[in-house]
Amino acid sequence: MPRARRRRLILRTADDAAGGAHSLAELDFLSLVRRGGLPEPTRQKVRYDAAGRRRYLDVYFDRWRLHVEIDGGQHLDPRTAWTDMRRQNDLWIEGDRILRFPAWVVRNAPDEVLAQLRAALTAAGWPG
To answer: With a threshold of 0.85, does the pTM exceed it?
Structure first.
């Protein structure tokens, strides 16, 4: 589609989806990371829990062992919330840093998200 309107946006979105973004909120987060000059994270990083089940981390800054979870409304369900907490506990036990943001905050308070991301990356050794 060389003449398609908004071709660059379409190509970038397709590349991001192919790279692991699974929701619009994750795409918004990735755009925020790039706009803030932060390092490029891995998306949908595969990890295995203690029972050997495959788990996916929304966003992972590998070098700094920083995991970021972007929560949609489905994460308010008690069973889903417990699954999230258990996975988070397992990651903490292994030594990872974890930040959680509801999708609403990524869209409506991006400066707060960037400030916390910068602080966590800096605390983990990112030179900025």
So the answer is: no
Q: Where are the beta strands (DSSP E) in the chain?
A: 42-48, 54-61, 66-71, 97-102
Find the helix or strand (DSSP H, E) in which 9 lies: helix 7-18
The proportion of the chain whose per-residue pLDDT surpasses 90, expressed as a percent, equals 39
Q: Is residue 4 part of a domain?
A: no
The residues facing 60 across adjacent strands are 42, 67
Q: pLDDT tens digit string along 19-30?
A: 444 466 687 899
Asked if residues 43 and 19 have their Cβ atoms less than 8 Å apart, the reply is yes
**Number of domains within the chain:** 1
Contacts 24+ apart (CB under 8 A), 15-24: 16/43, 19/43, 20/44, 20/45, 22/58, 23/70, 23/72, 23/103, 24/103
**What is the CATH classification number for the domain harbouring 66?**
3.40.960.10
